[in-house]
Specification:
Helix 1 crosses helix 11, helix 2 packs antiparallel against helix 4 and helix 9 packs antiparallel against helix 10. This protein has 11 helices and 3 strands. Helices cover 74% and strands 3% of the residues. Strands 2-1-3 form a 3-stranded mixed beta sheet. With 310 residues, the chain is mostly helical. The chain has one domain: Up-down Bundle (Rhopdopsin 7-helix transmembrane proteins). The chain is globular, with a radius of gyration of 21 Å. The model has no long low-confidence stretch (mean pLDDT 84). It is a multi-pass membrane protein.
Amino acid sequence: MQLNNNVTEFILLGLTQDPVRKKIVFVTFLLFYLGTLLGNFLIITTIKTSRTLGSPMYFFLFHLSLSDTCFCTSIAPRMIVDALLKKTTISFSECMIQVFSLHFFGCLGIFILILMAADRYVAICKPLHYTTIMSRWVCAVLVAVAWVGSCMHSLTQIFLALSLPFCGPNVIDHYFCDLQPLLKLACADTYVINLLLVSNSGAICTVSFVMLMCSYVIILYSLRNHSAEGRRKALSTCISHIIVVILFFGPCIFIYTRPATTFPMDKMIAVFYTLGTPLINPLIYTLRNTEVKTAMRKLWGRKLILDDKR
């Protein structure tokens, strides 16, 4: 389908065209990206090396950090480099790859959040059957299903993008490729494709958000029968998850559940869920989680001891 298009590359306008503001964007988002890599790398390394973080919750947290890192990496490096250039272009093929990776890792993060909510539900509401229901094999299968489901979702997005004819202009008023801004450039009626986009990405975001919030309401309601200590620990974990869910799904629902129209705040909202949430997640899961902080201190202490022996 690409061969039928007259457009071989797109021009990305980015967040701003002002030279001074572009330098501010470069510094700010370089720091954001480095912070995201550092935070998620610490979580991934800690979970992989710690013997105390072997429960399903941390198995899912490992994959969430991995998906956050890849999700951010699919956008941030190019955005940072583009902030230094006067004219930023992206080839048609690179644009399609970015659409695929953005939706693949974004959808994977959504599915992992659902698995984490399911894990908390079983742990709190069915504690006697927890080890049987959430066995290592079951968790591995659930994560594998999440990866396959994300791939299917991304392939759908690519199919929709490749079905769009582009005759010009080729200027994307955004800092990355996505179906919403691409729909505005298509030289054909995009009503059906936009409807498919809303029923795909929009439905996944909305239904997942409703499912997650309902599950946490049930979990919080069931805590009334627990001891004060058990209630405090469960509340700390659940509140962390709820914060992540609201921060991620709020912007996604705003972007993907409406017609192909753009608003002035769209790019800033996109910044929040593409770069902000992957940075905030490690902070939420470490600062509010005693087990993770303890495991990180042990890992750092063990590293210092090894360095002293050398």
